[in-house]
Design goal:
Elements (H helix, E strand, L loop, with lengths): L1 E6 L3 H18 L3 E6 L2 H10 L4 E5 L1 E2 L2 E2 H11 L4 E6 L14 E4 L4 H11 L3
Parallel strand pairs: 1-2, 1-3, 3-6, 6-7
Antiparallel strand pairs: 4-5
Helix pairs in contact: 2-3
Length: about 120
């Protein structure tokens, strides 16, 4: 069982990612548990009470930056794989110590699938 946290303030984006992830894991027959958060505050609350194999974090949230989430997640567990989801991945090149990869918006199905499997180390 893999446990994942998705963070995005746009509900449609979360629903899209969940459907995409479920189709990916159905193909490879891996059990997955997905938590979602719409803000930095919600994400930090979930991180404090759960352990995650992977996180995909939108970088621009109404109450802060995805970088704030990644820093705290890294402090809690160096084993959690973290991806930043952003329109401008090059803006975060100097923050590589907090992220295992950068996913570009808009989400492209094939690259998202490949990167998701790498993020989970499958």
């Amino acid at each position: 069982m893999k446990k994942i946290l998705l963070v995005d303030d746009i509900e449609f984006n979360l629903e899209f990612e969940i459907k995409l992830i479920k189709s990916i894991v159905d193909d490879i027959e891996v059990d997955i548990d997905i938590d979602t958060a719409n803000s930095v505050e919600d994400a930090l609350s979930l991180i404090n009470s759960n352990s995650y194999d992977a996180m995909i974090i939108d970088m621009h949230l109404p109450d802060g930056s995805g970088l704030d989430i990644a820093k705290i997640a890294r402090e809690k567990s160096a084993d959690t794989n973290i991806a930043a989801l952003t329109i401008y991945p090059s803006q975060y090149e100097d923050k590589k110590e907090y992220f295992d990869m950068f996913l570009k918006k808009p989400i492209m199905l094939d690259s998202y699938k490949d990167n998701f499997l790498k993020l989970l180390k499958i």
